[in-house]
Specification:
By secondary structure, this protein is an alpha+beta fold. Helix content is about 30%, strand content about 30%.
Length: about 325
Amino acid sequence: MKFIIFFIYVPFVYSVFFSELHSFITTYTGIHGMTAAGIPEFSAVTSLDGQQIDYYDSITMELIPKQPWMQEFASKDMWKEDTDIRQYVQLVYKNNIDVLMERFSQSHGVHTYQRRYGCVWDAKTEESHGFDEYAYDGEDFISLGVKERRYTESVLQAKPTVQKWSDNTAQLGSLKRYYDHECVYWLIYFLKLRKAGFKRRGPEVSLLQKLPSSPVKCHATGFYPSKKSAILYVPLDDWKKNQYACVVEHKTETIQTILTDDEIKSNNRTTKAYSKTLCVMGVLIVIVLVICALVQRKRKQRRKFNLVPSDSDEALYIDKGL
């Protein structure tokens, strides 16, 4: 007797752009006095919505993608340019810490110099705001009022730097363009890249069983959006008497996975399931709609203002000496 359970899972319509706040943040950290411990004297981390997407440090001297869907971007010419920028900033930070130690009358010890900059974007209202903050030894040092294009020092030792950076009108103009347009452009770009990566990956189906006497669980994961899973529990008696098959229907394809007893993942690896069976999990439908209007609007802005950053622009806003 073949007994088929038909299980349908239809999540609500979802878009990465709908009613969410998104963040795109880069953090640079320079360290003095810890190299003997194997700690890099410089590191750079970029995150999207709090999730690390790339990493660089002065030991490897390489920019490393930290998410599978970043591999595509890592194959582009711009990846080499981004690596060069971080190598340049690494040298700037080494010099900056020496300057700060002198200003603070320090001759030795462990010291850190950091910058945290980026933007937050509300996809629903299309509003965004940027931030640009510097710290020395864990304390506030300088911050940039993005809208006013005005630097503010938090300590007396920061005054010479504030004066120097405030007089650099070309640098301030580049920063305004970055925070008004380019930061959000890259944020949306990586959101789309992440979404496409999840769609390409598709669901994964597996059989799980905690103990030999536990129900067999047909588990499907890996859909987009993330944190969604569909589970069908098969009682032990049903598993023995009936035949099952797992079928997952994705938006882009139908995946029919034939799972035998030997493929059951159990805490007791030596225990085999009962007779030759197929586990059935019915149709799983994932509907993902993309709101393209926002992206198209940003593209039009980019074409109008020629906002894709050039090497010379990035040298101005990425970082500078004190």
